[in-house]
Amino acid sequence: MDVFEKCYRYTDAKEAVRRGYYPYFTPISSTDGTEVVIRGHRLIMIGSNNYLGLTTHPKVKEAAEEALRKYGTGCTGSRFLNGTLDIHEKLEEALADFVGKEAALVFSTGYQTNLGTISSLLGRGDYVIVDKADHASIIDGCILSKAEMRRYRHNDMESLKKVLEGLPDDGGRLVVVDGVFSMEGDLADLPGIVELAKDYGCRVMVDDAHGLGVMGPGGRGTCAHLGVSEDVDLIMGTFSKSFASIGGFIAGEADVIGYIKHHARSLIFSASMPPASVATVYAALQVIKEEPERIENLWRITRKMHEGYKSLGFDIGPSQTPIIPIIIGDRERTFMMWKELFREGVFVNPAIPPAVPPGRALLRTSYMATHTEEQMDRVLETMEKVGRKVGVLGREV
User: Fold this and answer.
1) Structural domain of residue 167, as residue ranges?
2) Of 3, 245, 277, 340, which has the fewest Cβ atoms less than 10 A away?
3) pLDDT in tens, 129-147
4) 152 and 68 in one domain?
């Protein structure tokens, strides 16, 4: 059989385009952060992970420009060989200090961070325990490691306990969990996980991609927010959210980070973060420290939207963060609402299985510190109008 045969048979995307319900790979022609222009149509952006609105911050842009002039456009090599600049190491020191760990290591993407960390620490004969709602990069890292993967029900400590009780005595054990779950915006029960991990001799790694810059004192993340930073062995973060760039890092004990540095294939065999991206992250970190009002404003907006959606009758699930899902359930109605919102000037992200559990299709909305009151009022008005039109709320009268 021709290996391309499945490609020729795949018509789902073409059919969605034909019907006008294809929401992916949408080209944005311009953006100021809170609003975007797509094919000449201006929309309020509530589908971005730019939580602190730093992609357009003058200090952040200036830092990127300065690094570009000093170092050029790229490193043209891996961190292992010619791709480590002094600013890579400067950033790693700052990140380790920010999350309260001895050392940190920067990767070119968050996805590569999880792949490299998990696959370098674990192997055959080891066990990796994951929440069923963990990010795909965690799952892929587990598969690549060839360790035996065990899953527990989402945020269910009794389920986790049963999994841990059933593990053999031999082999290493690592629990890997998201700090903030990216689809529904709920938090991991890190205190419960840490307690069970201690009881059953496990190490703990937290992927805090959506928590850093948002949760905890000074935006230091979900571990700090829940008071378990010292008990969590590894903290992972990405730069494509609050840090306004691209890349990722892992932080922990110096010896552990040193081992990952010399064994993670996704680090050793990938080109390093380009200079402008490194400088962007470092500048964003300084702004987070210097402008705490950004985090305060993000949470003021988050509370407004939580309360607004609930008062309108939307199901926003267990969200505790600026990620607020509009849970619809039905796939077709989810796409209908996405399309109508787009027409009305609001950009959201539809999520359907397998990205979410069956019967739990949703619109993923997320908010920025730079959104205005007027924009949020318009979003709530539009959501109500469209929700009634497509039957997610009570029908229009």
Assistant:
1) 57-290
2) 3
3) 999 999 999 999 999 999 9
4) yes
